[in-house]
Automatic annotation (TrEMBL):
The lineage of its organism: Bacteria, Bacillati, Bacillota, Bacilli, Bacillales. It comes from the Bacteria. Pfam families: DUF309. Transmembrane segments: none annotated. PANTHER family: EXPRESSED PROTEIN. It comes from Brevibacillus gelatini. This is DUF309 domain-containing protein.
Amino acid sequence: MYPEPYLDYLVQFHVKRDYFECHEILEEYWKSAPPQERQSVWVGLIQIAVGLYHHRRGNVNGARKMLTSARALVQKHHAELERLGLDSNALEHLLAVRLEEIGQGLPYRSITLPMQAAELIAAYKAACARQNQPEHRDSDMNDSFLLNKHTLRDRSDVLAERERQLQLRQGKQPDPHAAT
């Protein structure tokens, strides 16, 4: 009933607290859909993970930007979130509280996405069992690999795509010889 990448995202989010991997998993899933079928709800879940990643690393501005955008998508996609087994009202409240905490300068702390559908909870528990993982763990704030994971990857394809998109927005024809 629930896509396997979504369940993997939830395990990463709640157990491993690898928010960078959460982003990677859902972005790949989102990109695999034809452009006309790409749902913004996935972008909102990606932004929540990225916002928490930034907050945990101390990038308050990045966290605020991502979580504000994620909250706007949550507000817009209540029905889709409910179909994904999440309590959309509780999620919206959770994001509002986190944004308030960031504004007050409070440090990062782990959060739990509000799963409400019995089917999602059962599927999540089964995914944890398949991966031999507990159902919840707090972030390991001493794991430098986890905290700095994004700095270790090759970002040339991301940067090239950003440049291509910028050129398209400016009405320019992208350079077909640019590295992708």
